[in-house]
Amino acid sequence: MGNARNLADNLPVTGQLSGRNMVQNGAFTVDQRREYAAYTIVAGSNKFCDRWGFYSDSGATNKYGATAQVVDDGPSGFEKSFKFTVTSNSGAVPATSEVIFRHVMEGYQTNRLDFGTANAKNATLSFWVKSSIAGNYGFTVQYVDSGGTNLYNLRSYTINSANTWEYKTILIPKNTANGIQQKTNNVGFRLNFDLGEGATYSGSVTGNWQSAYVNGLSGGVKIANTNGATWQLTGVMLEEGDQASPFEYEDYSRTLSTCQRYFYRWTSSGLSDNLYIGTPYASGTPPNTSASVAYTFPVTMRVNPTMAALTGSGVSNLNRFTSSIHNATMQHASTASSAALSLDTWTADADF
After folding, report:
1. Which residue of 153, 253, 260, 289 sits 20 to 30 Å from the alpha carbon of 132, by its own alpha carbon?
2. What is the pTM of this model?
3. How far apart are the C-alpha atoms of 68 and 89, rounded to whole Å?
4. Helix ranges, 80-230 (H)
5. Residue 350 to residues 55, 94, 194, 347, Cα–Cα distance (Å)
6. Is-contact 302 337, C-beta < 8 A?
7. Nearest in space to 322 (alpha carbons), one of 333, 303, 307
């Protein structure tokens, strides 16, 4: 009976038994974008590993430098984690600047919470975190309501011991008054982990949804302000209800397929299987001809993606990339060159 009791205590008490996690790639197992290499943070929106990214404005990046990387370090049960490392600092992040690590969720993912109705549901965020600096940290949930107003809910969590993996849970309160504007393939929730912001964007935890912009905790730790500081995250799960349940693991192939809805990297395993477009006729033999090839994506993408050719034979001669949510066509025009063209790495980006 003891084992049965323990099992029952760990089952979710609200919602479904599977498909509980609204966060995608919460264990950072998939990194098509950076392929697990270190990336230097620059000003603006930075798309990092699959489904995760940064926002760091120029006022902040003028004061600090940092790298981001998916590393082979995690608590028991987790092989990977995201790691933020401050590599330089010349002063505090200015009052109207900010450094945010974020997960932008599609409306399809957050519909189950029924915000804006009498049936609205609380949600619980759980995650593992490790930092070189102990203390209180800020976290904000953001969404656009049905009237077009940005709403924010500032929460906090505490790291008790430096350089130690710790498990945290945060309750995200329901909102019966304000529905989520985007219910399909546009932005639902933004989950914002504060890594440093100025006083203008700092606030105190009230538990309320508000329209005033806040992204960090007044008096909280600002990792970007300390040279050499580190902050790591893994095992992120957002689920319906007031109680966190154990992290919902899934096969790598399933996580990869989910991520490919937002970003897809095609890489050959060698010259023999490059994506061969072909050799168009030279101009006038006959004139105005081209070679092209079509490729069907492994999953339907969120929106028509932005295409980029990275490496291959004659990439500079690629005349046109066209795409839909289902497939892409690459064209090599005779007016550019009569040489053969093949691609060994290209990407399709449909993320936020």
Report:
1. 153
2. 0.92
3. 16
4. 107-110
5. 18, 32, 25, 10
6. no
7. 307
**pLDDT tens digits for range 207-260:** 999 999 999 999 999 999 999 999 999 999 999 999 999 999 999 999 999 999
For 280, residues 6+ apart whose C-beta sits below 8 A from its C-beta are 289, 290, 291, 332, 333, 334, 337, 338
> Which structure tokens are listed for 138?
């800020």
CB 33 within 8 A of CB 47: yes
Cβ atoms of 121 and 113 closer than 8 Å = yes
Measured CA to CA, the distance from residue 23 to residue 175 in angstroms comes to 19
CA distances from 243 to 10, 237, 240 (A): 10, 12, 8
Q: Is 110 helix (H, G, I), strand (E, B) or coil?
A: helix
CA distance 293 to 115: 45
Please write the tens of the pLDDT for every residue from 150-168.
Answer: 999 999 999 999 999 999 9
